[in-house]
């Protein structure tokens, strides 16, 4: 008798736990009936993150209702409103911020014109890097009908005024592109399709009232909104032929700063060995670019042999990442413990962003 009662109680406790998580999921499923694959079990993920509770959908209180809108059929382009919760946006920025590296400089280094606002910065987050990233990747897979193995690593980008990408097609074997918006600029920074047509005339009217920048006006264009995601296909439905109507422009930010996260999706597995490794081995965090150090024992010897000049990418670093021998190459300075100004100089000299929290607008 006692045993039966004990078992019943245990079942009740388990059910209660399940309903707390399911409550948040049902909220979304009501709007997206039949949306989630039948295979997924939200309970088989480890629970070890400040945001991710192991479920596919964020259950935090900043999650807003999600809905999908088709904005164009040429190219096939869709907005997933509130794809990310504020907590997920914050988490992505926190993972990326320490490694955000300058990708483009306005003015030359000699003149000392390295302006954090007018420069673009970026970094990559690995597939399956942590449970929050893994959940976002699974949601993207369900939405795009392309598995996580076909996704590239997530690129996080920050643009200030004047950064712009001219009209281009993504190409390189990519079949679809997803842009997730993390921080909204005050003006500009839209994604505009220069050869496209709105799926419905009503959308053209809405766009006209949205005060877009000059670059975006008159085109199918999306004005960044925190948490939203834009998915568009770079190929025709055969997943091979280029869809010329996917030609798009990243409009310049006119005021403020824009952050977004990009996922490119392929028609076949992307670097499958890397993905296998990411599933099996825990993620190893990258070294802190603010700490001026040599990452290899041979650094001093190599520096004496002139490698800092001959092999700068490896020794000092380049747009792909941090150098291995920054201390030996005098690319940064040793400083007193706790000297934050020195830490920031260590970062700046390597091209890394010193983030001003206020630009995140309270995320
Ligand atoms: C549109 O944006 C510009 C630039 O931020 C601003 O000066 C202008 O007041 C805005 N217009 C409207 C109608 O909101
Ligand atoms: C900057 O680099 C030095 C190593 O030379 C390191 O000791 C220091 O901790 C860094 N600055 C800070 C404030 O961490």
TrEMBL record:
Where the protein is mainly located, per its record?
endoplasmic reticulum
Cofactor names: L-ascorbate
Membrane topology listed for this record:
Single-pass type II membrane protein
Q: Record keywords: Iron included? A: yes
Cellular location of this protein?
Endoplasmic reticulum membrane
Instruction: Enumerate the GO terms in the molecular function aspect.
Output: iron ion binding; L-ascorbic acid binding; procollagen-proline 4-dioxygenase activity
Q: What InterPro entries does this protein map onto?
A: Oxoglu/Fe-dep_dioxygenase_dom, P4HA-like, Pro_4_hyd_alph, Pro_4_hyd_alph_FE2OG_OXY, ShKT_dom
Could you tell me what this protein is called? Answer: Fe2OG dioxygenase domain-containing protein
Listed PROSITE patterns: FE2OG_OXY, SHKT
Q: Which residues form the Fe2OG dioxygenase domain?
A: 150-267
Q: Does the keyword Transcription apply?
A: no
Instruction: Give the catalysed reaction(s), semicolon-separated.
Output: L-prolyl-[collagen] + 2-oxoglutarate + O2 = trans-4-hydroxy-L-prolyl-[collagen] + succinate + CO2
Which interval of the chain is the signal sequence?
1-23
**Positions of the ShKT domain:** 292-332
Which Gene Ontology cellular component terms are annotated?
A: endoplasmic reticulum membrane
Q: Which SMART domains match?
A: P4Hc (SM00702)
Entry keyword set: Dioxygenase, Iron, Membrane, Metal-binding, Oxidoreductase, Signal, Transmembrane, Transmembrane helix
């Amino acid at each position: 008798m006692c045993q039966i009662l004990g078992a019943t109680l245990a079942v009740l406790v388990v059910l209660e736990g399940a309903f707390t998580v399911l409550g948040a999921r049902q909220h979304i499923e009501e709007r997206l009936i039949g949306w989630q694959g039948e295979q997924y079990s939200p309970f088989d993920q480890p629970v070890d993150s400040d945001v991710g509770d192991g479920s596919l959908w964020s259950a935090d209180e900043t999650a807003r209702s999600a809905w999908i809108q088709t904005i164009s059929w040429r190219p096939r382009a869709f907005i997933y409103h509130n794809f990310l919760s504020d907590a997920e946006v914050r988490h992505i920025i926190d993972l990326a911020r320490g490694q955000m590296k300058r990708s483009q400089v306005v003015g030359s280094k000699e003149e000392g014109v390295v302006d954090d606002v007018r420069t673009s910065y970026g970094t990559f987050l690995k597939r399956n890097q942590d449970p929050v990233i893994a959940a976002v990747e699974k949601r993207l897979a369900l939405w795009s009908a392309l598995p996580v193995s076909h996704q590239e690593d997530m690129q996080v980008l920050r643009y200030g005024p004047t950064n712009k990408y001219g009209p281009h097609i993504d190409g390189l074997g990519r079949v679809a592109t997803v842009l997730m918006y993390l921080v909204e600029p005050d003006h500009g920074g839209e994604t505009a399709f220069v050869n496209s047509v709105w799926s419905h005339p009503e959308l053209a009217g809405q766009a006209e009232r949205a005060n877009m920048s000059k670059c975006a006006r008159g085109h199918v264009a999306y004005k960044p909104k925190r948490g939203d995601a834009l998915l568009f296909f770079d190929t025709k439905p055969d997943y091979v032929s280029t869809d010329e109507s996917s030609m798009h422009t990243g409009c310049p930010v006119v005021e403020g700063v824009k952050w977004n996260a990009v996922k490119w999706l392929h028609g076949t597995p992307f670097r499958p060995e890397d993905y296998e490794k990411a599933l099996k081995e825990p993620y190893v965090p990258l070294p802190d670019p603010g700490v001026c150090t040599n990452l290899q024992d041979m650094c001093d010897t190599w520096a004496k042999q002139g490698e800092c000049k001959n092999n700068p990418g490896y020794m000092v670093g380049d747009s792909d990442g941090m150098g291995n021998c920054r201390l030996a190459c005098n690319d940064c300075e040793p400083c007193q413990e706790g000297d934050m100004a020195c830490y920031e100089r260590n970062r700046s000299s390597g091209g890394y962003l010193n983030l001003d929290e206020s630009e995140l607008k309270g995320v």
